[in-house]
Structure formats: C-alpha cells, structure tokens
Amino acid sequence: MTGKYKYAPGLWGVLAQEYRRALESDNKSENTIRIYLGVIYQAGTWASELAEPKDPTTITKSELRDYFAKVRKETSAGNAHNHYRSLNTFFEWLVKEEEIDVSPMLKVNAPDYEPPLIPIIHRDNVAKLLATCEGRDFVSRRDAAIIRVLAASAGRRAEVSYLDLDDVRLDTEEIKVFGKGRRERIIPIGGKTAQALSRYIRVRARHPQAALPALWLGSTGQGAMTHEGIRAVVARRAEQAGIGHVHPHMFRHAFAHYWQLEEGNENDLMRIMGWKSREMLGRYGASAADERAHASARRLALGDRV
After folding, report:
1. What angle do CA 267, 163, 288 make, to 5 degrees?
2. How many C-beta atoms surround the C-beta of residue 196 within 10 A?
3. What is the Cα–Cα distance from 249 to 157, expressed in whole angstroms?
4. Per the database record, which ranges form the Tyr recombinase domain (predicted)?
5. What is the CATH number of domain 123-247?
6. Is 107 left (phi over 0), alpha (psi -120 to 50) or beta?
7. CA dihedral (119, 123, 129, 130) positive or negative
C-alpha cells in the first residue's frame, strides 16, 4: 500500500504514513487518500526546504499562509483551496493524536475561491437523450437504462459504473450503491427507471458475458464497462441528440436542483446524495439558483399583494 504514495522528508513523512492508516481505518476512498497524501507531500517537501526547515509540529500560521499564496500563484485558486482543506484535516488529526496542542491552521483563512458552476441537464434534454435510445437492441436498452439510472438516482459516476446485477431490486424499484468510503445506501429509482432496467436485464441475459456480476456490460466482448465507458455513453448520446456537451455529473447537479425547486426536504436530499456536510447543499444548488429564485418570486407574487 505504501508504494502507491510519496512521502515528504522527516516527520512529515512519518506522520503522513500514520495518517494514511487512520484514513484507511475510516474507510476513506483510495482517491481521497491519494489527494490528502499528495498535498502533505508537497507541503512537507516545501517546508523541509525552507531556510529554517519546519515539520508539522513547528510550522507557523505565517508560513502556511506563504505556502497557500505560493500554490495559488504557481497553480490556481482552486488548487490552493484544495490544499487548504486537505491540510486543515491533517492538522485536526494531529491535534486528536496529541502530536500538537493547537492546529496552526486556526485563524488561517481559506484562500479566496469561487468554484466554477457545473451546468445541469434539464429534463427536456434528458428526454432528448432517451429518444436516441429507442431501439430494442442490446446497446439501446443498456444506454437507456444508464441514462435513466443517472437521472433517477443522482448516483456518482463511480457508484453507477460499479453497480452489480445483485444491486438492482426491481420489485421495490431501488438500487444499492456504495459511495465514498464504501458507505452503502439504498436509492429509490421509480417505475420508469425500473422498467428500463428490466428491459436491459432481459436483453443482457443473452450477452456472451452475462455470467459476469457487473450490471453494465460492453458491446464488444471486453467485459464490464468502466467509468470512462459510462462517460462515453453519455457523450455519444448527447452528440446524437444535438444538445452539446453532457457528462454524468450534470445529472447529479440536476437532481439536487429539481429536488430543491420542488421544495423537497434538505435532510432527505443529503441522505439520497450521500452527503455528510450541509455545505454540499449550497454547492450543488448554485448552478441553477437563479432559476429557483425566479420560480419562488413568481409563486409568491409579492408585488401582486399590494
């Protein structure tokens, strides 16, 4: 496991390896661990090369501010913000482990960063995507089911691509997905998506590799589809539909948008989406916030009450 990651010199590397074990025991995904340890490697390497080298127990607020400014200047505001979040979590862990009394990140402001808005895919364009999959052949039935699952479940691309046949529960119209940290959740998908899955599963049974556990099978005999395969299906169908670039994550943002537009309960949305932090409500709602505000203004019609 340790061969997958780089470790900075000295105490940075020693503590980063212990931190890795803590992240693994918390069931963090491999990608999350890679990101966190990559940031510690970069920050630790930089701190070790200062005129007066610093380790995690001696680095100061001022030096950390200098580091974030350096990252922002040399890369981007978004990357500096990611480094801030990763190091903040690392130093909080050091406090819990009693390696330090107080985090040096305390009162260090996050770098200014306005995350780019991810456009949503509106319902009329989902209908156009589905219109390109109206055939009865294997690929048409599979692609229609993929699009339906993305739209109905708000599943992350990895969650959808990792689905096994046993994760589909047609009788209760649900799917079981494994989110970040392999946390399991059950998501209702509705009648139309269950029907699309049923049609796909019937034609899938005649596929040469039908015995594989993976739900989504490729059409060229190469086994289960990958994350990239799911992305390629959506991109190809979007091109056929003439609706511009579409990627799987847009369905997730659209789900959050329409849930809030219909005034669905926010705590329920968090459970469906697999979120632990309420910060995600604002982040995922931002892409179509104006549309919801306009809808609320029309519904309330405050100017007509005079």
Report:
1. 40
2. 23
3. 7
4. 116-298
5. 1.10.443.10
6. left
7. positive
CA distance 280 to 250: 15
Q: Which residue in the block uniquely carries the two structure tokens 């069931």?
A: 27
Other beta carbons within 10 angstroms of residue 250's beta carbon come to 22
CA dihedral of 160, 164, 170, 174, whole degrees rounded to 10:
-40
The reported pLDDT for the residue numbered 287 is 66
What is the 3-state secondary structure of 202-215? HHHCCCCCCCCCEC
Compute the C-alpha angle 127/128/133, nearest 5°. 90
Q: And the tokens for 206?
A: 């005649």
pLDDT digits (tens, 9 = 90+) for 100-119: 999 999 999 988 877 777 78
Please, where in the chain does CATH 1.10.443.10 lie?
123-247
Name the token pair of 199: 């049609």
CB 201 within 8 A of CB 213: no
Q: Which distant-in-sequence residues (6+ apart) come within 8 Å of 230 by Cβ?
A: 146, 157, 160, 161, 216, 248
Closest CA to 260 of 278, 234, 238: 278
Q: What is the pLDDT of residues 149-193, one digit of tens each?
A: 999 998 988 899 999 999 999 999 999 998 776 678 999 999 999
Contact assessment for residue 33 and residue 39, using Cβ atoms and an 8 Å cutoff: no
165: three-class secondary structure by DSSP: helix
Residue among 32, 54, 58 nearest 45 (CA): 54
Q: How far apart are CA 17 and CA 109, in angstroms?
A: 27
Q: Which of 61, 28, 59, 33 is nearest to 44 (CA)?
A: 59
- Enter the CATH code of domain 2-96: 1.10.150
